[in-house]
Design a protein that fits this description.
alpha/beta, 2-enoyl-CoA Hydratase, Chain A, domain 1, OB fold (Dihydrolipoamide Acetyltransferase, E2P), six-stranded parallel beta sheet, five-stranded mixed β-barrel, 16 helices, 51% helix, 19% strand
Length: 426
């Protein structure tokens, strides 16, 4: 009887232990400008959290803002997430400006470390240029209605949502929490998770659920997201686009240089991805095809390695962009990309080496090969014994000689003039 009681206690303890460990919270960090890389990173983090059996995702935000289009896509991903998304302005001293403040309104639970600040979400043009009065009014009104809708959905302050857009108002986390702009302010990250735990939230399709916060599962950005982040800065992407157009124009007007065309083609695809004009997946496909075309051309066109190196770069970046983890559930590992790239590089270098070796081979079949060669006189003109025909390597050539020659006499070629060889008798 005692043994059975021990077994029952062990089973209960083990059961609760397993369940406590099964609850986890994915964690990602937005640190810097909001752009296409952030969208890709968020979608990847949501899917990775679900795949890891996490019940929620925690986003640590410290951003000055970013692309409004990217913000729309991020908000859409949060609203359609299968698990609650918790957003915390972090670390202490950080801020959620502009796009970051809007994202906070979309999150199922939002908060800030003390001291941090939130707000200043008035839309502005990318380069900071002044907008026309009508355009500004249109953009502000559109953004206000959008953010107010998010605040209403999450039960937060409509006045705060309107003020951060219309008046570019910015408040500390404590003040924002007091007026209902965010859910609460905390001193440490774990306190935020504890306060979020058990909170009832509205998931997609009006389904209600409770937040379950547990052990942190950190989701770091992969090489794909790092590359996207590097080229996705709006101003940098604009410079890449304009520079690529200029390089392609230079290649068209000065054909045969190759390097400007290669750099311009790769840069154009990357800039289109950064502008959201080309999906990351399609950008990967375009770069893959571009890389293959360049590598094939390298074998036939003397580009001195420009096409080969460009092809390898395009193929590598395209391979990283190709698999969208959100759609395919799979990320191409570096262990697959690296050997493929090395193999392509080896083939390219091998072809380049063979081409260079062929340049060193002496050409055959020209007149220069006949100079110094020996032949036999096969006929002599009766009227001019200084001229006739000789045989060299099975071919008959007309000759001229300063001295008289006889049939079957051996001669040596001294030079040539057009199709006539000048020889001397041996």
């Amino acid at each position: 009887m005692f043994n059975k009681a021990l077994i029952a206690i062990f089973f209960v303890v083990n059961f609760w232990g397993i369940n406590s460990w099964s609850i986890c919270t994915g964690e990602m960090t937005i640190n810097g400008a909001i752009g296409p890389a952030t969208v890709d990173y968020l979608d990847f983090s949501i899917e990775k959290s679900i795949e890891h059996k996490c019940s929620s995702l925690l986003i640590l935000i410290n951003t000055p803002g970013g692309s409004l289009q990217s913000t729309h896509l991020i908000v859409e991903s949060i609203l359609n997430s299968k698990i609650p998304v918790l957003c915390l302005v972090y670390p202490s001293g950080g801020h959620a400006g502009s796009a970051g403040a809007i994202i906070l309104q979309a999150c199922h639970v939002s908060g800030g470390i003390n001291p941090t600040n939130i707000g200043a979400a008035t839309p502005i043009l990318m380069g900071g240029e002044e907008m026309g009065k009508d355009l500004r009014k249109k953009m502000v009104n559109d953004t206000v209605s959008w953010v107010e809708g998010l605040a209403k959905l999450r039960g937060r302050s409509l006045a705060f949502a309107k003020a951060i857009v219309e008046k570019a108002e910015s408040l500390g986390a404590t003040q924002a929490a007091q007026i209902g702009g965010i859910d609460f302010v905390v001193s440490v990250k774990n306190e935020f998770l504890e306060k979020s735990n058990g909170r009832e939230v509205l998931l997609k399709e009006n389904l209600k659920g409770k937040v379950e916060a547990g052990e942190i599962f950190e989701i770091k950005p992969g090489l794909r997201h790092i590359l996207l982040d590097f080229v996705a800065d709006p101003q940098f992407a604009y410079f890449i686009f304009m520079g690529s157009i200029a390089l392609l124009y230079f290649e068209i007007t000065h054909p045969g240089i190759f390097a400007p065309g290669v750099i311009g083609a790769i840069g154009l695809v990357l800039s289109l991805v950064s502008f959201h004009k080309l999906n990351v997946w399609w950008g990967g496909v375009a770069l893959l095809f571009l890389g293959i075309i360049m590598l094939v051309l390298e074998a036939f066109v003397p580009s001195f390695g420009a096409l080969g190196i460009g092809g390898i770069i395009a193929f590598t970046v395209g391979s990283l962009f190709l698999y969208d983890p959100v759609k395919s559930g799979y990320v191409l590992p570096r262990s697959s990309v690296l050997p493929t790239t090395i193999l392509l590089a080896a083939v390219m270098l091998g072809l380049g080496y063979l081409v260079m070796q062929t340049r060193k081979i002496k050409k055959h079949g020209g007149f220069d090969d006949l100079v110094g060669a020996e032949g036999v006189v096969v006929s002599v003109d009766e009227s001019s014994p200084h001229e006739g025909y000789i045989e060299i390597n099975g071919e008959h050539w007309r000759f001229q000689c300063e001295s008289k020659l006889q049939v079957h006499q051996r001669v040596k070629v001294l030079s040539h003039k057009e199709l006539v060889l000048k020889v001397k008798g041996l």
